[in-house]
Design a protein that fits this description.
0% strand, 55% helix, mainly alpha, Endonuclease Iii, domain 2
Length: 235
């Protein structure tokens, strides 16, 4: 929760120190979804809902080999798509969604992934989170991705008290320089996956301990906390 005794200026300075410390902690930070085009990233991000990036990466090579373009995916047999993406969970809904999304790209966008958030969120299966991932990672346009990790970590760090992703996005956007929005999002996601877990955060092995008002929610003993640290995102 946001600290009530902290001024806006102090919170802004602390938020930017947090991002700098995370950048030192995770120097190799990157989007953990594999993609080679904006279209591939858009599809992969839709598939990543309620599953892990690793599972998505396991199925997308076969998916994109079979359907490499919006035209091919829009014409796909949904049942065949379901078979390919089944390991990602909720595969019936996801298969229908990505086929409909590809058809919308053809109908509305000349088969090109839009570069504007307002256009992206009109596509089936695309909300602000997915749109900001695509804008930031595929096009280099600043965007704050608010997923479950960003929600949890930002609230624990006292950078927001909101629970609505749109409000969290606005709170973080006000604290961080626009150029840092995309990398800061990935850094917070990595931190949530590797240390600031939902159930047992590795507080005793956290580089943000001195800046975190929630320090102590997880084990503070360094050796015990170190055993909770993951070297990569969850499988």
């Amino acid at each position: 929760m946001a600290r009530t005794d902290e001024t806006d200026l102090a919170r802004t300075r602390r938020a930017r120190r947090i991002v700098r410390e995370l950048a030192r902690t995770y120097p190799d930070v990157r989007c953990e979804l594999d993609f080679s085009s904006p279209f591939e990233l858009l599809v992969a991000t839709i598939l990543s809902a309620q599953t892990t990036d690793r599972r998505v990466n396991n199925v997308t090579p076969a998916l994109f080999a079979a359907y490499p373009t919006p035209q091919a995916l829009a014409a796909a047999d949904v049942a065949e798509v379901e078979q390919i993406i089944a390991p990602t969970g909720f595969f019936r809904v996801k298969a229908r969604t990505i086929v409909e999304m590809a058809a919308a790209l053809l109908d509305r966008c000349d088969a090109e992934v839009p570069r504007r958030l307002a256009d992206l969120i009109t596509l089936p299966g695309v909300g602000r989170k997915t749109a900001n991932v695509v804008l930031g990672e595929a096009f280099g346009l600043p965007g704050i991705t608010v997923d479950t990790h960003v929600t949890r970590v930002a609230r624990r760090l006292g950078l927001t008290s909101a629970t609505d992703p749109v409000l969290i996005e606005a709170d973080l956007g006000a604290l961080l320089a626009r150029k840092d929005w995309t990398p800061a999002s990935q850094l917070i996601i990595w931190h949530g996956r590797r240390r600031c877990h939902a159930r047992r955060p590795a507080c005793g092995a956290c580089p943000l301990a001195r800046m975190c008002p929630s320090y102590g929610e997880g084990p503070t003993d360094p050796q015990l906390a170190a055993r909770l640290v993951r070297t990569e995102g969850p499988a």
